[in-house]
Amino acid sequence: MTPLVLSLRATPAQRLDLSPLVPNRLAGMKEGDIAAIELQTTRERVCVGDVFRLQMGDPAQIQFESGSERFDRIGCGMSSGEIRVEGDVGIQAGRLMTGGRLEIAGNAGPWAASGMKDGSIVIAGAAGDRLGGPLSGEMAGMRGGVVVVRGDAGTRAGDRLRRGTIIVEGKAGAHAGSRMIAGTLIVRGRAGPLPGYLMARGTLVLAGGCEALSPTFTECGVHEFVANALMAAFVKPHSPDLAALLRRPWRRLLGDMAVIGKGEILCPPA
Amino acid sequence: MQHLIVNGIRVDDTFAEAFGMRATALTITADSAGWARQAAVTMTGFATSVIGCGCEASIDRELPANETPDGRPGVHVLLFAVSTSELQKQLQNRVGQCVLTSPGSACYAGLDGEEKLKLGNALRFFGDGWQVSKRYGDKRYWRVPVMDGEFVCEATTGLTKKAVGGGNIIIMGVSRQNTLAAAEAAVAGIQAVPDAIMPFPGGIARSGSKVGSKYKGASASTNDPYCPTLKGAVNSALGPDIASVLEIVIDGLTPEAVAAAMRAGMGAVLALGPQRGALRIGAGNYGGKLGPHHFHLKDLLP
Q1: Which residue of B29, B130, B150 is in closest CB contact with A227?
Q2: Which of A178, B2, B9, B60 could pair covalently with B13 via S-S, beta carbons 3.0-4.6 A apart?
Q3: pTM here?
Q4: How far apart are the C-alpha atoms of B112 and B81, rounded to whole Å?
Q5: How confident is the model at residue A208, as a pLDDT?
């Protein structure tokens, strides 16, 4: 199957809203129709054909031959198919995804996977702040699916996470898992200060420990969790090395007692 | 009765008459194969017949660690009942009292199916508010805190309405010892067949029953035509050479599983031969008017 390939003509003069370029919206469209889709975020009109050279193929597979931190909302609302970006992307990559797979070879800006419901996102570089988190006024962040960040994540990764799994293979910034409602956030590297800040429920795995724990988390001892084998089996296809780590004993802290205190932080035994 | 003779053993030209049932399956794991087996044996105790136990249940097969969801040794257990509501009740009570309580145990769905029965969803309340739900992919689990750690239980398990209960072979021999040896061989053969169980003790029933009784309130009573000590007094099905009869009852997730199990059981009895084992193999039926599934012995000869 030949993918639909979009090659950047030149660095865009403004931020672009690439949310129309998802497989479910391009299905059945002709080249001219795709080229005429508007992408501007200012009053200056910019169409797909102005920014990209199009090489038609099956729109179930879309390939951006290069990236830009001005590529906003890429994969937003995607429900099926596959998008691959050979570079960086801007804000809200994969926001509100309900299916399919988004692969980003570079870095992603803030709010990647925001409100995502299903599907998978792989970010080979780093992710910005509020990975999976909600926008202002929204009650919950990510609600399903899997996000894998091979690099580091910014502050408040997994903010208001409701369901689904986020894997950060690098480090995480301050307040990882803040206000988590449920779901699972796994950070392989070291996390910044105050992870799990105001988390209600959910699982926050900090394989590399953290800079400072909130005093509102209570010590529950070191245990071997059968449930971690299930987590490891699920994580293995996405991050095999991390999956192996999950099977060891973990120190469990329950919190955040500043709210209902039914969340858990798993970190290495002291 | 007309019969065939295979390896010196008479095989009646008859059939086992079996019924549609509701069934589900579980995978039970523990820290060792022994404790997984213990939980399963406890859970499937007093589950020989729907007549008096509410369900029929037994271990289908043991599972190596690499075939279970949590990578620990396990067993695959099947449960059969006559209605979905009864199956749900039996499942909930048995897992709650016998698996949840067993050291180190965990319990997972053992059957896929569009229709579901509540498993962890029914037992999670034991956690008294400390239970934790985890969803990985399309599977949801409950983690219930218990005194040795956590009881992990999948939220639901599958239900099939295409299961079959009441497949059987009747093994007849010259003595109790020979008949039991043949029945044990049949059980060993059937144990290798997946998706089928033998719910009676050790897989063998010595008290085959007929429908009805001379006494009010008894829905079943002893199968007197097959009782060797009544040969002269009743319309006996037994010849003068038969002194002992044992029955193997088989429940399967599909008709094919029951047929495969009957074939394996008959094959083992026939292979043992008449000198050390049975003289005759038959099957129980009700004239073919009650059960929709008819397993003819001559079609199942190995």
Answers
A1: B150
A2: B2
A3: 0.93
A4: 17
A5: 97
